[in-house]
Amino acid sequence: MKILITGGAGFIGSHVVRLFVTKYPNYRIYNLDKLTYAGNLANLTDIEERENYTFLKGDIVDADFIEDIFSEYKFDAVIHLAAESHVDRSIADPLAFVQTNMIGTVNLLNTAKKHWADDLGKHLFYHISTDEVYGSLGEDGLFTEETPYDPRSPYSASKASSDHFVRAWYHTYGLPIKISNCSNNYGPNHFPEKLIPLAINNIKNEKPVPVYGKGENVRDWLYVLDHARAIDVIFHEGKVGDTYNIGGVNEWKNLDLIELLCDQMDEKLGREKGHSRSLITFVKDRAGHDLRYAIDSSKLMDELGWKPSVTFEEGLSKTVDWYLENTEWLENVTSGHYRDYYEEQYERR
Ligand code: NAD
Known about the structure:
Its cofactor is NAD(+). This is dTDP-glucose 4,6-dehydratase. It is built from twelve helices and twelve strands. By secondary structure, the chain is of the alpha/beta class. The protein is globular. The protein starts with a strand and ends with a helix. Bound molecules: nicotinamide-adenine-dinucleotide (NAD). Residues 6-7, 9-13, 33-36, 38-39, 59-61, 81-85, 100, 104, 128-130, 159, 182, 184-185, 191 line the site of nicotinamide-adenine-dinucleotide. The site of nicotinamide-adenine-dinucleotide has 31 residues, from helix 1, helix 4, strand 5 and strand 7.
């Protein structure tokens, strides 16, 4: 089987690529990535020489490029993760999100439909999405697969739109699709603009740790390797046309999470207990900041037998260890050094 994985140099995509390349040596995995600021091939150095792995540098917004690679490699399936993914950036520059998340997704759908027309049923377009499409919850309740869409940020609006396009290609053209909507991920290779890696980096360097508002926003957190395992299960065993929610049954207020992180890091760095908490700095809240996300993943658990493999405390501790051990990765990413390097290494096709 030849699988095109888009966005495979990013945070979640790199874990999905590694899992598929190593677990399924008979599959051929093609990783298509534009290598934006968020894409980093250093996430995949351990598997880059594998025979069943190929990297393709390109932009999903470029329909001719997508057509070329479908013609050349004749993919059997697509797992689509490429996206602009940062809510704050979407507030500053919404159009980039419309381009990649909406136009890019439609390009992939159009090309897959065209190339698979003779034997549609043998193929699969699996779209990776977020629970942010469901909007914001009050103190109670959980997002289920039936929760109506109510996106609030340009990021979630663009992801909601891409989900709708994927379903439209299923209903209108019969393209076999699956969608999963996952809660917040954390773990190794996370770009340090996001809450947990940003906080780890700042705590390590004794810099202020910014927390939006009063830190009362609640998120469900899932260890990224557990998300990759869920994608594997849904890809192989999920029902065509269906949507699956993925979450960690693990709700945390932002402030509680940061305090836990501070305490874990004080212990690991041999600092006095409470030292890192003094770095917490409350900053002006994000515009339109959704209060609470919480997700019901019982369909995935009951029907496909998936469940998270680590507790939050374990996953967070592994994540801190990874960042403390991989200082070079962090320095390269924060300095932009690796992007200059890849500009030189990879000519646009
Ligand atoms: P990320 O920003 O770390 O990675 C995105 C990748 O896509 C990068 O490698 C980037 O170079 C690539 N990319 C961006 N624009 C592209 C384009 N036009 N053409 C080709 N490649 C392009 O994001 P992530 O956190 O790994 O998220 C991956 C997917 O999972 C996204 O679709 C996101 O919406 C979804 N998701 C993320 C989370 C989370 O907590 N991070 C949760 C649920 C769902």
